[in-house]
Design goal:
Blueprint lengths: L22 E6 L4 E9 L2 E9 L6 E7 L14 E5 L13 H12 L6 H26 L4 E11 L1 H9 L8 E6 L12 H6 L6 E6 L6 H10 L7 E2 L11 H14 L3
Parallel strand pairs: 4-5, 4-6, 6-7, 7-8, 8-9
Antiparallel strand pairs: 1-2, 2-3, 3-5
Length: 263
């Protein structure tokens, strides 16, 4: 499930590492099998969680960037669902840098300029996030009961931007959902739209949710136009709290993803 070779870019610089492998810690629940895991990415440890039904092989996979335990509801649709914490978010928070990252990303999404240090922080977040996504997908592909040919990528909150940045470099996907304050950025070096528009993304089905009214409508629409199928941006039922979506919105996304991953 390695991504196709591509030349280094400002945001994606392949890092010489051994093959990605999961370090799994499993516990059984009434709903299914739950695993905490770690993946090494650019020398950093990426913490994650994998939920999969008790029975089944060749399970389709949903990788969620951010989000809460509500995504385990995917097991009811015979999906394996993995979640990872992105840099400086979730369990990787930094008292010094996390708030600066969030506020910098908010300014970026609104089309406002960033000071040099904040821009460098957002750029490094993008670069590390891409690596974390690719390394996690590579590691999950080695799991015997997961089907690496049926994968969906979902980004919530800042994870929506991480999803947009990662999409052109990821291995072939069946579905992709972006639900967060994301769009076309006026900062050309951080704008995901041009790279997405020029990439060969195959038959991936995309859905884009606009979650923040401060992001210019034209910016959100430009990203939607670049995604395969030119999906019209939709609204969530409930405004998200940080990275977490309401259960009804999680169900709506899973209902979109599940048939996309059907054989």
């Amino acid at each position: 499930m390695s991504a196709p070779p591509s030349p280094p870019t400002a945001l994606h610089r392949p890092y010489a590492e051994t093959a990605a492998r999961l370090s799994l810690r499993e516990r059984s629940t009434t709903e299914g099998r739950a695993h905490a895991f770690e993946v090494v990415s650019r020398g950093d440890f990426v913490p994650g969680h994998l939920d999969r039904p008790h029975d089944g092989s060749g399970l389709p996979l949903v990788l969620v960037l951010g989000g809460s335990s509500a995504w385990a509801r995917g097991m009811q649709r015979d999906l394996a669902v993995a979640r990872i914490d992105l840099p400086l978010l979730g369990s990787r928070q930094s008292p010094k840098l996390s708030d600066r990252l969030v506020s910098g990303h908010e300014r970026l999404a609104r089309g406002l300029p960033l000071d040099a240090d904040t821009r460098a922080l957002v750029e490094e977040f993008a670069r590390q996030s891409i690596s974390d996504v690719l390394r996690t997908l590579e590691a999950l592909a080695a799991e015997a009961d997961l089907d690496a040919s049926r994968v969906a990528l979902v980004g919530t909150g800042l994870g929506a931007s991480a999803c947009a940045w990662s999409l052109p470099f990821a291995p072939p996907l069946r579905a992709c959902v972006l639900a967060g304050p994301v769009g076309a950025f006026t900062d050309a070096g951080l704008d995901p739209v041009a790279r997405i528009a020029s990439a060969d993304l195959g038959d991936v089905r995309c859905r884009l949710y606009a979650t923040d009214e401060t992001v210019p409508e034209a910016s959100v629409r430009a990203l939607g136009d670049a995604l395969p199928g030119q999906p019209k941006p939709e609204r969530l039922d409930t405004p998200p709290e940080g990275e977490a979506l309401a259960a009804s919105d999680v169900d709506s996304i899973l209902d979109f993803v599940a048939p996309s991953l059907a054989r």
